[in-house]
Amino acid sequence: MNFNFFKKQNNQNRFVDRDNDADKNKEPAISRRTFLKGGLVAATSFALSPALIDLLKLEDEEETEEKLATNVVEDLEDDFYYEQVEAWQEAQSMSTNELLDLSKEGDVELTLEAMEGVKQYWKNVHSTEGNKLHKSFVDGYREIGAYKKELEKIFEEEGVPNKYIHLSIPESYWVLDAKSPVGALGPYQFMKSTASKYELYSKSGQYDYRTDPFKSARACARLLKDLHDASGDWDLALSGYNGGYFWRYLKEAVSSDEKPDYEGFLKYLEKKINVVRNETKYGDVYEHRLRSTLGYIARRVGVSVDKIAQENGIKDPNKVRKGIIIRIPLENDSVRERVYKMRIAGYRENLNYPAKFNAIDEAIEEGVVTEQKEPADFSLHVTKNVYPKSRERKAEKEKYFVYRVKKSEGWYRVHQNVKHLTKATQEDIKKLNKKIAQRGLRENDEILIPKKA
Question: Which of 36, 161, 368, 452 could covalently link to 363 via disulfide, CB atoms 3.0 to 4.6 Å apart?
Answer without folding.
Answer: 368
